[in-house]
Amino acid sequence: MGEKRLTTRTDDSSVPNWLKEAEKASVISDSFVSKNIKPIILNMNIRNADNALRDLCRQVEITRFIDVFDEQLAELFISDNAQLYKASLQVKRSSVRDYLKNYKKGKSSWQLGSWVYYPWSGTLIHMLSEDEFIKLRTIRNQFIITADEQEKYASYSVGCAGMSVGSNGAVAIAITGGSQRIKLADGAVFSGSNLNRVRTGVKSVGLPKSIIIGRELYEMNPYLRIDAITENLSDKNITRFFDKPWKLDAVVDEIDDVIIKIKLRLEARKRKIPVIMVTEPGDTVMLDVERFDKDDSLPLFHGLLKDAERIAEAGSFKNERERIKSIVKIIGTRNLPVRDQQAALKVGSVIPSAPQLGSTAMIAGGVISYAIRQLATDAPLRSGRHAIDLNKIFWKPKDYLRYKINHETKTRNLNRVIGNM
Predict the structure, then answer these.
(1) Domains with residue ranges and CATH for the chain
(2) Where are the alpha helices (DSSP H) in 272-396?
(3) Run of H or E residues at 212
(4) How remote is the C-alpha of 132 from its chain's centroid?
């Protein structure tokens, strides 16, 4: 589901004319939205910027006009002058008024900062220029993330492969001011069932996942550099993913294709860059860290899939049985909660794919951003598998022990079923 659109738009004679006319009158068409990802940015400090802005306003359809330049500048001023933070509104406004007058030096607000146009929504926004905007949006990170760490985190280039759970990682990285250059790779389109774990709306159904997430990141920070790959990673484009238009510092692997997962690691190990993977069975989040940057002799998947390189060289599995067993070896049946174990036996007959929860997917996003920040700042993040089991954390010990006893029995049963495949 979601690999490609299952239906195509046709001229349905039963559709009333007034509804057809409404679609034709739509300023921004669905096909236009699906092809456009980058905003248009006009820096008002450049020569003839006012003419460029005038031309832009005449050439594009503007459905929403937003001017937050003065408000952002005022907030930045208050943030830089912490003693004003708890002052009365009257004092704040008076101080801001004097600051803005001095800042503008006789110019009008519209002649300062940047004007950003988002073609997919028809929104034109007047906002701070890049340096001031980045300072404002990361100012609440101070002391938790030092200025030096923030700079390293921002310059750390990440490639996110897989835009379901991976989208939460990309968003968390961007929202914390990390990876100003980021690659998003996913060949699938967004489907209705993705709504349970990806932060977007029904309007996104049928659009390429990497485009959807790229747009969301740009709306958080229009100054990002984003490379959105709308094809599945394969032998044809995996080198480009790593090396063009810029080289990666780390990879976040959230794809389902086991062979490509293997090849991602082979390419990462060859380049001596780390791989991060998060798996979220049930109410558990598992973080896998492979520090090929520290040791390029590390076995893939911590040695859990011993014939990984043979599988990659073959380019395919011998049969479906081998594919399933490879997945089981990587994840481990012991790491599947009881309900996930039950679901695993129903995939392909009762349910189309393994179940996932948006709540753990969001936690996974935070874990991914934490891991990337640790890598970027050369913190002592170690290779290996690290688990966050919410039941273990929040349940009473006796209840969790009872659950684990039952879990051991279910795990043995699942291993028997898989062994008999």
Answers:
(1) 26-137 (no CATH), 147-419 (3.40.50.720)
(2) 308-314, 320-331, 338-344, 358-376, 390-394
(3) helix 209-220
(4) 24
* DSSP3 helix / strand / coil % (the chain, rounded to 5): 50, 15, 35
Which tens digits make up the pLDDT trace of 254-307? Answer: 999 999 999 999 999 999 999 999 999 999 999 999 999 999 999 999 999 999
| Residue 341: DSSP 8-state | H
> CB under 8 Å to 241, separation ≥6 — which residues?
159, 161, 183, 185, 229, 233, 248
User: With b meaning 16 or more CB within 10 Å and e meaning fewer, what string describes 363-390?
Assistant: bbbbbbbbbbbbbbbeeebebebeebbe
The answer to whether the beta carbons of residues 56 and 42 sit under 8 Å apart is yes
- Contact of 160 with 250, CB cutoff 8 Å: no
Entry pTM: 0.91
Name the burial class of residue 121, with classes exposed (0-12), middle (13-18) and buried (19+) by CB atoms within 10 angstroms of its CB.
middle
d(CA 255, CA 93): 50
